[in-house]
Design brief:
Number of strands: 18
Helix content: 40-55%
Mean pLDDT: 91
Number of helices: 13
Shape: elongated
Radius of gyration: 27 Å
Structural class: alpha+beta
Low-confidence stretches: none
Distance between the termini: 56 Å
Length: 424
């Protein structure tokens, strides 16, 4: 949720942000009108309430016909006050609904455009030349089968499409990646968290996932609970309705959870393998900090994600995501995309977003500094989205015989193993 005062003072900035995102610009004017109705109806209610209070004193002193007239006016006024109160509540509710429908204000530094209009900030590492090495690379599905690590067939049998089992070395690889990510995060001062996968509507809506992202959210109507698509949701809501002392900031959490996504609108995309699935595990970094420090913290999160990918010895690129592909909460977002040899392109494996004050306003999380209370900033960054990392590791570190060399940094978390070898 953006600052309503900013909307009143600089509506053109909000219109420009909505336009750059490809969102409804008319929403801005509708909100301005609703806010004016809310304020005018509030003033009208206050005027009538003051008249009602004054009339009560006059009735107590009046006699005869004057008193009868005042009592008649009292009845009329009671009806007017009730109507004004209803109008005020309706206007307030409408303004609140429209305000929550607005996307976050775009960072002026974010590229403008659609999904393909990102800006490549850097490319790290060199993709392997498998032709020069004398063999055709296998994709992760074939490798996973050879290694006894991924079972797609039984995953589909038991749970349907976009489902899978990690077995043997695959299961151990997931646990190793999670432990490696948590080890890095805790060394950096993050507090490790295992978060709820089921949350109440206030948590899901407060983080901004019931707007444009709602079609990908699983809802359990009987309990009115949502399955999270990322532990960003429970981590953001952890301090909901709280005031944090400025001296506590930054507060950094590393959350591990299962994540659930309907993948609506992706029919026919990535149907092979574990790149786009309904359930996966992830380690997510989440930070509460001051608005003044948010931009610098965003860069730190990006660097920590790069450190993790560097340790896994994966070639990747960093992109500055364009305005139309940001999502409602993010003012700016950086993605890291790892090279996938059999696809001949980079695919997203991590992402980090600066959501400024947007989520904290929606979740009523504030900071106290020098006796003053104000909204704070929140940021998130994926440290390890397990399936896509497994895809990148298997394909980039494969050998001609179907074995996979484990990067040195991962070996301690795999019991000292140096390779994954085909199952005989």
């Amino acid at each position: 949720m953006i600052d309503l005062r900013l909307l009143r003072e600089d509506p053109d900035r909000v219109r420009a942000s909505q336009r750059a995102r490809g969102e409804d610009v008319d929403l801005v004017d509708a909100l301005i009108a609703a806010d004016e109705r809310r304020r005018s109806s509030g003033s009208r209610f206050d005027e009538l309430r003051n008249e009602q209070k004054g009339l009560g004193k006059q009735v107590a002193r009046a006699q005869g016909e004057e008193k009868a007239a005042l009592l008649q006016r009292t009845k009329e006024l009671a009806a007017e006050v009730k109507a004004a109160d209803a109008e005020q509540s309706e206007a307030k509710e409408e303004a609140e609904r429209l305000l929550r429908s607005l996307a976050n204000l775009l960072d002026p530094a974010a590229p403008i455009g659609g999904e393909e209009d990102f800006v490549t900030l850097e490319e790290i590492g060199t993709p392997r030349d498998f032709a020069a090495e004398g063999f055709e690379p296998r994709d992760h599905v074939e490798l996973g089968s050879l290694l006894g690590a991924i079972d797609m067939e039984r995953g589909a049998k038991v749970a349907g499409s976009r489902s899978y089992y990690l077995t043997g070395a695959g299961a151990l690889l997931e646990l190793a990646l999670v432990n490696m990510a948590m080890a890095q995060a805790t060394a950096l001062g993050f507090i490790p968290m295992i978060t709820p996968a089921l949350v109440r509507p206030a948590a899901m809506d407060g983080t901004g996932f019931l707007g444009q992202a709602a079609e990908n959210v699983y809802h359990l109507p009987q309990e009115d609970r949502y399955l999270v698509g990322t532990s960003e949701v429970p981590l953001a809501a952890y301090h909901m309705d709280e005031i944090l002392e400025a001296g506590q900031l930054p507060l950094r959490y590393a959350g591990f959870s299962s994540c659930f996504r309907r993948e609506a609108g992706t029919y026919g995309k990535d149907t092979r393998g574990i790149i786009r699935v309904h359930q996966f595990e992830k380690v997510e970094m989440f930070v509460y900090t001051t608005p003044e420090e948010a931009e610098a913290e965003h860069r730190r999160l990006l660097q920590w994600e790069k450190d993790f990918l560097n340790a896994l010895e994966l070639p990747y690129r960093v992109i500055d995501v364009a305005s139309g592909d940001l999502g409602a909460s993010a003012a700016r977002k950086f993605d890291i995309e790892a090279w996938i040899p059999t696809q001949g392109k980079y695919r997203e494996v991590t992402s980090t977003s600066n959501t400024t004050e947007y989520q904290s306003r929606r979740l009523s999380i504030r900071m106290r500094e020098s006796g003053q209370v104000r909204p704070l900033a929140t940021l998130n960054g994926t440290l390890a989205a397990i399936p896509r990392l497994i895809v990148a590791l298997l394909e980039n570190h494969q050998q001609a015989d179907g074995s996979v060399v484990l990067p040195e940094a991962l070996r301690p978390f795999m019991g000292g193993r140096t390779t994954l070898d085909p199952v005989k």
